[in-house]
Write a structure and sequence with these properties.
This protein has one domain. About 55% of the residues lie in helices and about 0% in strands. It is built from seven helices and no strands. The longest helix has 15 residues, at about 1-15.
Length: about 130
């Protein structure tokens, strides 16, 4: 009971004073892509830092495993100003599925593409606010 009360108090304080904390996110600070540097697309993503057509194709290909796709996104990294990798990937997906960008829905996407889109969104905006 005492632990629950303390945890509740800590969470309330965090929500009351969100600007006081500027801790790094594990999503951006964990560089697990380094273990995948033998994968050509991971190395390319790390060097370029932005989404290109080849990276988008790699993320949508069912031939590539989800862990390598995650490593590619992790290698793209982030920056305080934010990035537009999500926007580029959404344009790519709308072209791939022949739907207007406004009508792009998860019904069209594979589970891997939904994961990639979500992970890209987090990496693009996690520190841009």
């Amino acid at each position: 009971m005492k632990k629950t009360l303390i945890l509740t108090l800590i969470l309330k304080l965090l929500f009351l004073f969100p600007g006081m904390s500027s801790a790094d996110s594990p999503i951006t600070s964990t560089k697990f892509y380094e273990a995948y540097m033998d994968v050509k697309m991971v190395k390319r993503a790390h060097l370029e830092g932005v989404m290109g057509i080849e990276i988008a194709e790699f993320l949508s290909s069912p031939e590539n495993t989800i862990d390598t796709k995650a490593a590619v996104i992790n290698a793209l990294s982030w920056r305080f100003e934010g990035k537009n990798n999500t926007e580029f990937y959404m344009y790519y997906l709308s072209l791939l599925y022949h739907v207007p960008l406004e009508e792009l829905d998860t019904d069209f996407l594979s589970p891997d593409e939904i994961f990639c889109l979500g992970y890209l969104m987090v990496m693009d905006i996690v520190n841009s606010s």
